[in-house]
Known about the structure:
By secondary structure, the chain is mainly α. It contains two helices and no strands. It has helices spanning 12-38, 46-55. α1 (12-38) packs antiparallel against α2 (46-55). The protein starts with 11 loop residues before the first helix and ends with a helix. The mean pLDDT is 79.
Amino acid sequence: xPEAIAFGAPRAEEMTRVxxxxxxGLITGxxxxxxxxxxxxxxxxxxxxxxxxxxxxxP
Length: 59
């Protein structure tokens, strides 16, 4: 007879971790978008900010 498989509801700690990761990703994306959008106004520093923001690994 096969064993039954059960899935439990996520705990509060797991939900908090997922929400925090989602919020962190959203904030990182917004900041990166603002930096890339503002980069053309920075003149000679434009390549540094544009490529730096796009290539910088997220923590």
